[in-house]
Every structure is written in structure tokens, then in C-alpha cells.
């Protein structure tokens, strides 16, 4: 009785959409802990919390923010592959607004203006994507491909083709500073998550986004302003990429138009998928996407701590991602189960 | 009597513990059309899914020519000789007729077991197959260059291409007009003469009597019985399906009519010379509060186009639309909804339901959309709303949280009507609201429409079933070839309406 009850709860947990993502994350964390004894150790030093777990949270922050924006776009049946380029643009705008002074306390514009400018430009990028998709009726992957390609050029125009180093110390607070003992970036992700979560659950936005993703025509006939919401989804994704751009440029203390956020769009799509949101749109999970980002970062951490040679670490990563995806596919699991039971069926047929 | 070609014995199927089929028997004989009847949710679809290997069965056996078979996919079933044609045409509109017929089974030529497609053979065999069902068309043209009826027959040809013994037709006529149905029936008779066993699912009683030789009725997942068609009258058939006498409900007096006074007051909706090039010739239409205006016409007569113009789904390029005498122009459905218009589209699956969302969310969707995103209905409010309509319209669902896609067609349709009633519309446009749903649900929906009209709501009732239009409407607008050809008062006989439509009623 006790055993069946336990099995029931286990089953209901695995049927929950976050079941597999959480299992995957726990598994990767356990592997990490097995290979480095100090992995789970967290300590309080100099007023900050230190430890590998905090490190993973901190490093996953930009990806998590971008993945949250991506989740909303994917919910509407779309995709945004321009986020990496927008990260570069936002970083470039911030670096330009701070200016190239070597002094640690000099900036061209006050910090709030720097932030608003970077986020504003990122928002405009998102609006541009949204207009192409919602108004011009372009396919999302093509529409955002335009900015993905052009964005790197725009970022380099802003930085004059150079890597701009940032010296203004207050700016480092976002990507490298601490707040109440934890890295600021973790707080920023939490803030974005909570705001988005409230917007989705306390308003009808969540219902509308799902309706659009599942059946756009029916949503429109029911009076849902599908175009406006789609536009909003891309704008939000752009804004999230802007936040990530600030986090990254502040963390590495420079703006690199060419390499900042490179291939981040693919990691973001992967995070959303690992988290349990289907690329076909409709039902989505915000928490899943954050977990997905953490899975990717934990995996990267594991690969480094195992000492996998850098030249093959992408191969290892791909293999693990492949395995995780197969594990999460209900169809694949069913095939495996069927295959495993095959001999038994064969025997029974012989007997008959 | 010859032995059955296909026999189902003691079929049992449960979904999540609920019986969808319980100890069901069915026998199909060669050279017979067998009608499978039952209300929505009676188990017809499940039975077909079991037969075609879409779902596995929990108990019972399927015998094909006396041998037990276990189809585990539609492809498997087809290889065994059981072919199926579904309600919606499941073909690729952008491929040619021949490609559609042979997709996946192209005749091959060349080395390595045929590394390329033998197009001559493909086209020749396609022509042969179509000739078998009496169709002579250019098989190299794309599918969309032909009418839905022809597409349906292409689907049959595709189903028949393997040496079939059994043909299953799941509501094949629901998107066809009378003339097309007659052509389809000619095809079925031809196939019957060739010795095929045909299982035919439909909601149209007259079609059952026109084509079938034998009837099996399902009710509440059980088999009620099997009769030769000649021995089961229509009343008895309905009684078998419903399990109760429906005679009283069938007789309904004509709704009151005062067409003369109508023109005096300001109409709720007033369209003058409203039209769209290539879609609808300019027409006038007035709808008053509390009035049921019927729109009769064949498929492609412009009925759906008219509804779309009124609801802002299409933009008229001439004419004027007034609501309460005030000129309006809608570019989105949201604007029309704000003016109190609601629209239940004809294509329930494509344009109506949001399949993966719950029944509760589907019912709340239009009201929530009108309220905007900021003022959000709480779960409790959604539940109260949904519960009210589930009770009022008799929607059958295990829970409100069930995805609406899992409900039967009639219940989906009722849920869509509930979605719109929740917005308390002043004008409800219903495009084929009774299509593909069973007799009892039809009756309930018609009753609900009349009740709503008596509370002051205006209804624009679009239907290809003339008998329904005649029974329910205060006025009947007749469309033909995308043009309004006339307006008839209540009490007009079916024959008069049919005459005006320009087609005799089968």
C-alpha cells in the first residue's frame, strides 16, 4: 500500500511537465557532485555567498533571461533567432553611452540613461521583428534572421568595429556585483521571472498567448487581438535580450559586436525545449525554461570539471543534449519499453 | 446468407477507466452498405479507431474473413484490406490527383527494387482507379483544382487502391451538397456491386435510408441492435439512438411572423449594398432584435462569405453596414464583438475550438478577449461561467478541465455556442451550427436558438439543411451563386425555398 502510494506520486511527478527537466537537472548536479567533492559546498565569505551552485546560477543568468523572452515568442508559434545579435547591440549601445574614458568614475551619460538607452534600443529591435511577423506576415525564422545577420553589423557600427572596454565601475554592479550576498544577476533574473509570471497568471495574457499558439485562426475569431499580442511577444523577447546584453557586457567589462551573445539564440531555444515547451507553440512553462538554462550551464560546468579537452567539448555537450531530448520524448520511451518487452510477447505467441 | 467479411466480437475499450466501447459486436457482409448510427459520444468514432488500428482494444476480437487480425496502425489496417475515408479530406492540396492517390505507394521502376517512380504507371493506375468509381478527370492536375466532392472521391480512390475488402466512410457527406451526395452514392452503389463491404457513418437520416442495407445502432458505448434497413423506420431508429421517444420534440409550430412591422423600426443590423469583389455580389440585409433570419443556399453560394463580411473577418469593398443606425466598419473580429456581434464559424476544428485548451478556457475565451487582458477572470469565475453553460446547453464532459479537443463534435459545437453566449451578444451568427452532430444535439441547439431569440437576441442562421431553416426562421434570405436571389417569409414550404435555391432537395 505504502509502496503503491509512493509509486503513484512518482508517476504523477513524472507526468508533470516539469518532471523530466527537474530529473535531468538533478542528475547533472549529482554527476557534478560525484566528480568534484566540493561541488555542493556553499560558504559565506566577505559578505557574499560562494560556491559552485551560486556560480552556475550566476553564469546561467543571461541565458535564462533570453530563454524567458524566447518562451513567450515560441508560445505564439514563433521563434526569435535574432536575440544573440540584439545582445551585442545592447552591449554596444551601453558601452557607447558610457564612453571610452579610462577613469573608473566617468561616464558620458548618467547610469540610468545608459540602461534606458540599451534597453530601449533592444526593445526597438524586438518591435522590428514583431512588425515583420505580425504586420508584414513574414515567417518568424526569416523575419528574425534579418536582424540576426544585420544586428552584428549594427553593433559594430556602434563600436566602430572595435571591442570597447568599459572602465566605469558602477556599471559592473549588474553582471559582476552582489546584492544581499548574492550576485546581482540572479536577482535580475528573479525579477524578470516574477514580473513575467505575474503578467501571465494575473492577467489573461497567458490564456491569449496559448490560444494564439494552438489555433491562431480560432483565437482571432474569438476576438483575441492576435497581431498586437504577437508584436508584444517579439518586443518582450528583444527587451530580454537587452537585459542579457547589459549582464554580459557588464560581466566581461567590454562590448564586442562580433562575439557577444554569439549562438545564444540556439542555447535559448535549447533551454526552452529542454524545459518542456514544445516548439509547435501553445502550452508553455516559464519555470521550465529557467530550468533548461540551468541544465545547459550545469552541463557546461560538468564538461569543464571533467577536464574534457576543449576541442571536443561541444561534441560531448551535443551527445548529452541528444540523450536528454530522447529521454524526454514520450514516443522514444514508449519504443524502448516496447522493445524491452518484446521477447516476452514472442514467447507467449510460441506457447499459443 | 454469406458469411461476414469482417466481424467484431465483444469489443471493449476504456479511456482512463471510462468505457468507450462495451461488448460491441458488428458484422459486415460483402456487397452491403452498413450504416453505423448513434449520438455523439455513443462510441462510433472509437469503434472506427479500433477497426483501423488507431487505438488498441482492451478485449474482444476482430475477424477478417474468419481470421483474427490485430491492426496496430491505419497503414497496417489498410494492408489487411480495411480502408478508411475520414470526414475531413485528408489529402495534400498542393499535390496532383495521382500523387495523392499513390503517395507512399508509388509504382517503382529501375534497379534496386525501383529507385525511381514510374510516372506512366502511376498516372495510368490512377485513371483506372478513378474509372472504377466512375470519375474521369485529369489526374496530373493539382487536387485543389477540383471541388470538395471530387476530392472526397479521390480520397476514396486512394483508400481503394490496395485490394480492399472493407471500406469505412466516416461522415463523408457532411461537407457535400445534395448533388455531390448523389454522385458519392452512385460511387458507393458501384462499389457495393463489386462486392465491397462498406461501413457508413452519418448523421443524415435520409442518407441512411437512401443507401444502406443494414443498420447497427450504438448508444452509451453499447450496441443497441442490428436491423435490416427496410425493417427499421425513422422513428424507431431515432428512438433506438436516443433511447427515448422524441416524437413530441419533432413537431414544432412555425415561429410568429410579422414581416410588415419589421421594416418600420430601426434594425439592429442593416447592410446596404454590402459586397466584396469575387466573393459576394452587393446585397441588402436587415436583422431586427429578437428575430431569427435564416440564410439558405448551397455550398459556395456566398453564405459563409456574408457572415465573414458582417463579422470583420473579410473587408467589404462596397456598401455600408449600420448597427443601430450608426455606420460601422470592422477590420477585425474584435471590433465586431465590441458591437455585440458573435460568430460561430462553419469549420469547427479549424476556426472554432482551441483543441488543447480546456473546456472551461474555451468557453471563457471570447468573453475574456472582449474584457481585455488586464481584467482577468479568476479560475472560480471561469468555472462558474462554464458550469452555467454546461448545464444550460447540456454539454457532456467528464470535467471542465478536459481539453475540448477530446469532446465529441456535438459537445464541441455547444461549447462554442456557450463561448459566444457568455459575451451576451445582440446578434449571433451561426454558420452551419448543426453540421456533423447528432439528432438530439441538433434539436437541443435549435431549441436554444429559439429561446435566445425570445429574449431579444437576433440570430442569423446559416444552414444547408433547408428543413432546419424553414422550421426556425422568421425570414429566409436565399443566396445563389454569391448573390441574394430573394427573401421569403416564415411558413414558406421547403419546396419553395429549394426552388428558389435552384436545386431540388433530395
Automatic annotation (TrEMBL), chain A:
- Indicate where this protein is primarily found: membrane
Gene Ontology MF terms: transmembrane transporter activity
Q: Which residues cross the membrane?
A: 57-76, 83-103, 109-134, 141-158, 178-200, 229-248, 260-279, 286-306, 312-332
Taxonomy, superkingdom: Bacteria
One Gene Ontology CC term in the entry: plasma membrane
Lipid bilayer topology: Multi-pass membrane protein
InterPro entries referenced in this protein's UniProt entry, alphabetically: ABC_transp_permease
- Keyword vocabulary terms for this entry: Cell membrane, Membrane, Transmembrane, Transmembrane helix
Q: Where in the cell is it found?
A: Cell membrane
Would the keyword Membrane be found if you checked this record's keyword annotation?
yes
Q: Which PANTHER family match?
A: ABC TRANSPORTER PERMEASE PROTEIN YPHD-RELATED-RELATED (PTHR32196), GALACTOFURANOSE TRANSPORTER PERMEASE PROTEIN YTFT (PTHR32196:SF19)
**What is the designated name of this protein?**
Sugar ABC transporter permease
TrEMBL record, chain B:
Q: What is this protein called?
A: Sugar ABC transporter ATP-binding protein
UniProt keyword ATP-binding present? yes
**Which keywords does this chain's UniProt record carry?**
ATP-binding, Cell inner membrane, Cell membrane, Membrane, Nucleotide-binding, Repeat, Sugar transport, Transport
Q: Which source organism does the UniProt entry give? A: Caballeronia zhejiangensis
Supply the InterPro entries for this chain: AAA+_ATPase, ABC_carbohydrate_import_ATPase, ABC_transporter-like_ATP-bd, ABC_transporter-like_CS, P-loop_NTPase
Where do the ABC transporter domain residues begin and end? 6-245, 263-506
Q: Which PROSITE patterns match?
A: ABC_TRANSPORTER_1, ABC_TRANSPORTER_2
Enumerate the Gene3D superfamilies for this protein: P-loop containing nucleotide triphosphate hydrolases
Q: Which GO terms of the molecular function aspect are on file?
A: ATP binding; ATP hydrolysis activity
